[in-house]
Design a protein that fits this description.
Strand content of chain B: 25-35%
Order of helices and strands of chain A: HHHHHHHHHHHHHH
CATH topology of the largest domain in chain A: MetI-like fold
Distance between the termini of chain B: 39 Å
Oligomer: heterodimer
Low-confidence stretches of chain A: 275-279
CATH class of the largest domain in chain A: Mainly Alpha
Number of domains of chain A: 2
Mean pLDDT of chain B: 90
Largest interface: A-B, 18 and 22 residues
Structural class of chain B: alpha+beta
Helix content of chain B: 10-25%
Radius of gyration of chain A: 24 Å
Number of strands of chain B: 21
Distance between the termini of chain A: 51 Å
Amino acid sequence: MTNLSVAATRRWKLAGRYGLASLLLVFFVFPIYWLFIISLKTPDEIFHFPPIWYPKSLQFANYAVLFKDGDAVSVLNSLILAGVSTVIAMIFGTMCAYSLVRFKTGGEDFAVWVISQRLMPPIAIIFPIFLLYVYLGWVDSYGGLIVLYTAFNLPYVIWMMRGYIEDIPLELEESALVDGCSRWAVLWKVVFPMARTGLFATAVFTFVFAWNEFIFALVLTRTEVVTYTVQVTHYFGGQSNFWAKIAAMSALGTVPVFITVSLLQRFLVRGISMGAVKG
Amino acid sequence: MSDVRISGLHKTFGTVHVLKGIDLEIPAGEFTVLVGPSGCGKSTLLRTIAGLEEVGQGDISISGVNVNSLRPRDRNIAMVFQNYALYPYLSVFENIAFGLRARKMEDHEVRLRVNSAADMLGITGLLDRFPKQLSGGQRQRVAIGRAIVRKPQLFLFDEPLSNLDAQLRDEMRGEIKKLHQDLGITMVYVTHDQIEAMTLADRIVLMREGRIEQMGSPLNVYEQPATRFVAGFLGSPKINFISGELVDAGDRQAMRLSDGEIIPLPKRTQAWGQSIVLGIRPQHLGRSTDSKVKAGEVKLSRPIEIVQPTGSRTYVTIKIGGTQCIAETESMETGRPGETIDLSFDLQHAIFFDPTSGAAII
């Protein structure tokens, strides 16, 4: 009898937990669902009241327009800018972090100085950067934005990788040095594989930062390398907003991040928790 | 095989002077053990030989070549680390092959060497596994395998057995000794464990506070310690130190203990001051069964405080001159605490030290 009641209580508790989890899930997932579903509705369905929770037939006309008008290229632009700047920031950032950890480059507090760059609001320096870029002829170019994104992501990469590299036992590197590796070979054959988890986690975040970047792209692009975040703003008109296009463009913009995060989820969770412990 | 010469070696870390003028010659093919308490600089000395620490001042040469400015990889040495330093993301085979691959050796030669090293160490069955699937002893074998495949001219060990349990440590100690006999390569071995030092070494280098306190063959250092520190460091259970005063006893000098016991000195010493320290190892302080006093023998009777049988030997704690001392007896029937035991030792085995400088004086 007692056993039965204990089992019943346990079942109720479990049901309660699942109920609460489902509620939270709906709360967080609904905006994403709504974004995707609007992008698949006709204009009539979008403005219908009461709202249509799911349209009778899904239509892809909103996406077709983006591709026909060439607006979808902005997603490709974002992909190039975020991808290239992430790769560069990861390579140089990891090298810097290694130097900071193993050779104490710049002294003990140098890393704090490096990360303090991220505390600066981008809007505060956008005007001087704009003037500089006009002077250099870098406005509206891939190179210009890649340099800027790399510069802004480097401190983050250095800070994160520093923590991961500190966790690598020094003896592994020393053993490799004695066995015949140069410092560069140690970096490639020992540090990279040992910090693999951290590398992936940091790369994902670096990519997402660059992917979501808006203010630099808004000011420093015109027509050639418009990113998807800036492209979305083009659909907010003085007279009316093109909700269908906004939704379709935004949905397109979330896809690469979804794919990246789901592919690297395993590394991401481990990487973040490692970083959390190390600080 | 190669010899190592170190002269006038100094090393500082910031304001800490770690090595204070080391002069050491290691003949080719010799097994040299650097031993001493933690912080004595033995690991730093080994790491400086390896090139992992820069030479502050002085010279290190291997096979007649000055290696001061050579990178670790150009010194043709192999090193085994305390915590094995195996790459967790590589199989045992690749771990052993790491150094060969780093030197761009042909694949078939790599296979040949790794298999032969694995065979030698009895780890052929483990080659496909990863380090986390191995026990401590197996990991240490892999680490040694990684060192021997390279066929280096000098082998360095940095406390390789301290992470293993006692039984495994004994086993691996034997294997390392055999490895040295089979390969005949010059080996330098760092440990803080005096038993490891005694059993493995052709020559012991005992270090203290950045200096070499004494070096020589294990037996030589053990039986003729130059200082009180050396005498106290080697030997288990530890040597007994008993303090007393120098007195004149007729035709010869003697030592008077605080409990009134008079111990004659085997020969006259210069005026060393008023006090003197007697060192006698437990195995030389045994149970006396004979009532006659032989020449050069000292007899004592003391109440037993503690009895510790170990099986083959029994350790008896007694008090001599106010100091707790351990005597080693063969018999299991030593007596019980509170009973009196008759002990004796031969003055030949006694070592006398100057209490101020710590130097052995007789």
